[in-house]
Design goal:
single chain; about 80 residues; alpha+beta; 4 strands; about 40% helix; globular
């Protein structure tokens, strides 16, 4: 199931907390994929990656077709396909 977390209008620290809480809850389900909508803010994207995704070992990628999102996936193998 694909989920969306829209961070538009949130301060960066609040955005980090929201992503962390929602990803933890979503990751408890069996099949999932999450689209984190960051907009074009590179600092916000970097903060989400550095403070949530990397420390918690989530698999993610930045699609070259849309600079305003981070896609988080359940399985690393899906990222390479």
């Amino acid at each position: 199931m694909r989920h969306k977390i829209d961070l538009h209008g949130l301060p960066h620290d609040e955005a980090v907390k929201r992503v962390e809480n929602e990803l933890i809850n979503i990751s408890l389900s069996k099949f999932w994929e999450v689209e984190i909508i960051t907009g074009n803010s590179k600092p916000m994207k970097d903060k989400i990656i550095k403070e949530v995704l990397d420390p918690m070992d989530f698999f993610y990628y930045l699609p070259h077709t849309n600079n305003g999102v981070i896609l988080v996936i359940q399985d690393k193998l899906l990222a390479s396909s």
